[in-house]
Amino acid sequence: MAERVLVINPNSNEQVTAGMSAALEGFRFTGGPAIDCATLREGPPGIETQLLADGVIGPLCHLIREEEEFTSAFVIACFSDPGLHSARETTRRPVLGIAQAGLTAAMNLGQRVGVISILANSLARHARYFRAMGVESVIAGDLPIGMGVSALADEQKVFTRMSEVGERLRDEHGADVLVMGCAGFSSQRAALEESLGLPVVDPTQAAVGMALTILRSRGR
After folding, report:
1. Are residues 22 and 52 in the same domain?
2. Chain segment 104-154, per-residue pLDDT in tens
3. DSSP letter for each residue of 109-156
4. In whole angstroms, how large is the CA radius of gyration of the chain?
5. How many domains in the chain?
6. Do residues 107 and 176 share a domain?
7. CATH classification at residue 44
């Protein structure tokens, strides 16, 4: 089987999937694994609540079962890491969640991690996950931009809001590294990093980088 990393967007927003794929272009190289991005057709337009996150677990695991034969590693591209543990029970292949990967990458770049999220109702869900991961002590803050997934097409407005939130995390909360808390933010990473003068982690890129490392370390 040829090596392949499948990045799954568990919402049904094709624009988010296209943006992720564009941000991953630098991870594709001759002779390396194929990096494909897929949209979960059964998913909601955006995963913005715990209920929506829980609702995609069944369809997500079904897609992973269907693709297992053709895939070397999976990435779940939503900052809630929905269905991560169920997915790992579903397949023998490595499954990475972008929140776990993004936070892990950030902790190698700084001491105080700031998270830029989409909506205020995401924060309690994220806080539970930070506690479950045991990383709450390094989280400088988690602040929303006040825009849902469906509004992320307005890239200039998104950048303005992300910059404002990033400045608050840096100046008021002491963050020295930032993680973008939504896969739909992918196109903003480089400009945000330049604007704020801090390392900015795209968690989808972080997860794919880890998947490539795992495959290389296993000699595949």
Report:
1. yes
2. 999 999 999 999 999 999 999 999 999 999 999 999 999 999 998 888 989
3. T-SSEEEEES-GGGHHHHHHHHHHHT-GGGEEEEEE-S--GGGTT-HH
4. 16
5. 2
6. yes
7. 3.40.50.12500
The enclosing H or E element of 76 equals strand 73-76
User: For residues 62 and 33, is the Cβ–Cβ distance under 8 A?
Assistant: no
Asked if residue 75 and residue 44 are part of one domain, the reply reads yes
What's 176's DSSP letter? S
| Beta bridge pairs of residue 97 | 76
Give SS3 for 200.
strand
pTM of the shown model = 0.95
Give yes or no: residues 138 and 192 share one domain.
yes
Return the sign of the alpha-carbon dihedral for residues 82, 86, 91, 95: positive
Reported as a single tens digit per residue, the pLDDT across 69-80 is 999 999 999 999
Q: How far apart are CA 156 and CA 122, in angstroms?
A: 22
Residues 105 and 193 placed together within one structural domain of the fold: yes
- 94 with 187, same domain: the answer is no
Can you give the residue range of the structural domain that contains 122? 100-201
State how far the alpha carbon of 14 is from the alpha carbons of 21, 67, 112, 117, 202, in Å: 11, 19, 33, 20, 18
What's the start-to-end Cα distance of the chain, in Å?
10
